[in-house]
Amino acid sequence: MSTVDQTRELAAFLRTRRERLRPGDVELPARRAHRRTPGLRREEVAELAGVSVDYVIRLEQGRGLRPSPEVLEALAAALRLSEDERLYLFDLARQRPTSRPEREGPADDEAGPLARLVLDLSPLPAMVLNHRFDIIAWNPEMAGLMLDFGTLPPRQRNSLWLCMLHPGLKNFFRDRERTIREGIADLRASWAAHPDDKGLSDLVEELTSGNEEFARLWAMRDVRVNARGRKRLRHAAEGPLTVEYEVLAPLQAPGQRLVIYRAADPESQRALDAIARSCAP
């Protein structure tokens, strides 16, 4: 049984995407009449998508409709959704096309061969996450950069939980708002793709009810899968540094992610080298 109320979430997502657009964003003429609500009108979305206004209203009210793939494509184009947002929309409607059957591989909570690969990647900090963002394997350099995950209870070995609730990481991200917002947008995509995962829904509920910052950013309904980027960090001993990260999805374990950090500049490289030396046996 699904733990995500997909009809309700689909309604809320469509409303927030409509409200963020202006007529000029979709090449509609600006109207002189004052708009009582932000963003496009439902009539404008209906016109752009080629559906009736009543249909848009019923979708936004969560009245049990299940849009076809063709309607979803039209709505995604009308609302100028990114590719990640488009897939999120299809996931909520349970209409995502299956490109190929998933290969048999390790369970989501088992890193399998990836655990050995993570160790081989030293001295680059690396870790393996599952679709809940649980940290299921890491090397000493990643632990030295962030914290010793092995000392934590298993339920706390979750990258979002640690970022939001662990006191030792409160000041770890120098661009905290942006980093947290991107992480939550990524988690939301996974949440929609795994509506039957009670553990994932429980994590979202715990963070939403226990952390105002998470609740505020979660309510924005941003959706973005982060494949690469930069993070500005603050290490307790080595001070500020910047890393470039790469996220790889193994074909044999499509529900898992291999995350690798590299120094973004010479000063950051010196900091990572010092951290690696401190982790050496």
From TrEMBL:
SUPFAM superfamilies: lambda repressor-like DNA-binding domains. Gene3D superfamilies: 3.30.450.180, lambda repressor-like DNA-binding domains. It comes from the Bacteria. Residues 39-86 form the HTH cro/C1-type domain. Pfam families: HTH_31, MLTR_LBD. GO terms for molecular function: DNA binding. This is Transcriptional regulator.
